[in-house]
Design brief:
The protein is mainly alpha-helical. 43% of the residues lie in helices and 7% in strands. It has 11 helices and 5 strands; from the N terminus they run αβαααβαβββαααααα. Helix 7 crosses helix 11. The longest helix is centred in the first third of the chain and has 17 residues. The chain is globular, with a radius of gyration of 19 Å.
């Protein structure tokens, strides 16, 4: 009645209620990015630097999200200096041995945490549940190598540079032929084909190594 925007808040609550109904979880936590920079910005100041500014209508609703979560009696996890991905990774690391976990996200970065049968990703936007087989089918690499995939192809949504000239298919092929990034770059002079020049280019290893660090989800956040 005061004319305040509530669309994002309503959609958020609808998603939570649908999860509670459809999945019937025994435990549920909401994980949030903190305001301001995170440790990755110190490593690479342009990290996420290409993202557009948040619309004013959404920005005005942001303070209400934690209030709604707490009013629903749910844990709200947010750690300064660390992204939500890192908090999720830490929770998974602590609990995966004792219970089955579902990460609700559409973010491909979190595919690196998938471990069959105990940890799966649920993309509610596509109504898709993702285990190790689905990661391999979609990306051409197992979850354990998603980070190396991102190190080569980069990630435009997070402004992770990767190796210029290497795309998704090229990255998958290179990883299929080499057991690690180190092994790939150690053999760069023997490479042939379209991917050889980008890997042999000056600064390619440094960019891949930095990109791997940026893409790696931390498992040791003080939660």
């Amino acid at each position: 009645r005061r004319g305040e925007a509530t669309g994002a808040l309503f959609g958020f609550c609808s998603m939570i209620f649908a999860l509670l109904t459809d999945e019937e979880p025994t435990h549920l936590a909401i994980v949030w990015d903190p305001p301001g920079d995170v440790f990755r910005n110190a490593l690479f100041p342009d990290y996420k630097g290409t993202r557009p500014d948040m619309p004013d209508e959404l920005r005005a609703q942001m303070p209400m999200f934690p209030e709604i979560v707490r009013a629903l009696g749910l844990p709200f996890l947010c750690v300064p200096g660390f992204e939500a991905d890192d908090v999720i990774g830490t929770v998974v690391e602590r609990l995966a041995a004792s219970c089955d976990l579902t990460i609700v996200t559409s973010d491909k970065d979190l595919m690196q945490l998938v471990r069959d049968p105990g940890v799966q990703v649920l993309d509610t936007m596509k109504n898709l549940r993702v285990g190790e087989a689905e990661v391999l089918e979609r990306w051409g690499v197992p979850p354990s190598r998603i980070v190396e995939m991102l190190a080569l192809m980069g990630d435009s949504s997070d402004n992770i540079p990767g190796v210029r000239g290497i795309g998704e298919k090229g990255a998958a092929q290179l990883l299929a032929e080499h057991p690690s990034l180190e092994a790939l770059f150690a053999a760069k002079d023997t490479l042939t084909g379209r991917a050889s020049k980008p890997i042999q280019a000056e600064g390619a290893w440094e960019s891949a190594d930095l990109s791997r660090t940026l893409a790696t989800i931390r498992l040791d956040v003080p939660v």
